[in-house]
Amino acid sequence: MIALPAPIAVAAPLVPAAPLASDLPESLSLDDGRAVTIRPVTPEARNLIQQGIARVSPESSRRRFFTVRRRFSERELDEMTRLDGWRRFALGAVARGPDGPVGAGIARFARVADDPRVAEIALLVVDDFQRVGLGRRLLARLARAALERGVERLTGIVQPDNDPMIALLERHAPGPALVRTGEHLSVEVHLDARRVGTALAA
Ligand SMILES: CC(C)(COP(=O)(O)OP(=O)(O)OC[C@H]1O[C@@H](n2cnc3c(N)ncnc32)[C@H](O)[C@@H]1OP(=O)(O)O)[C@@H](O)C(=O)NCCC(=O)NCCS
Predict the structure, then answer these.
(1) What average pLDDT does the structure give for the chain?
(2) What does pTM read for this prediction?
């Protein structure tokens, strides 16, 4: 007799069929009146990202990438822009410059491999757009996008001298936990729809 293999359990697809609210572009005014549009990152954003990183100061770059980056390789641009929108998702903020659109900031999350309810976040606002509320707005929208996708906890690694990011989390994220792990701080933000709506109001 031939032993038949056990039936294979087919997991329900994770990706929702209909677009989510966080998939829609949103235009808004920053605290200094400049207009930006925030929308999910797609491969069309490659040039804006490459041009944007060239305008980021060494200090901001080091805070985000732990080293100074002036440009990205084609492979890195692929990784940053070819996102499935579920496990890996990013929002980009685009402003109007004198010669056309310019990248102003980017925020992304990636679910951790062993727990899809947890996602690691990263945030970068180009220096000439810092301190006018863009980081706060990107973080708020990223948190909402994560919640919409069933993420319950955001994590991240922050350098202990990164006062802007620590202040952003302490002032605008719902009850962040900052824990020193070796030479870095690990961040945990528990998402809950009610608190994301208020603490991360933008
Ligand atoms: C951290 C970062 C994203 C903040 O973005 P931002 O657009 O300048 O922040 P916002 O203008 O929205 O400010 C939000 C809050 O952050 C805090 N903050 C921002 N910049 C600050 C600074 N230079 N010093 C102290 N607090 C600061 C403030 O508390 C502010 O809240 P308030 O306006 O109610 O006082 C930006 O500085 C950045 O991209 N830094 C480099 C990359 C990085 O560090 N990324 C995080 C690691 S993944």
Answers:
(1) 88
(2) 0.90
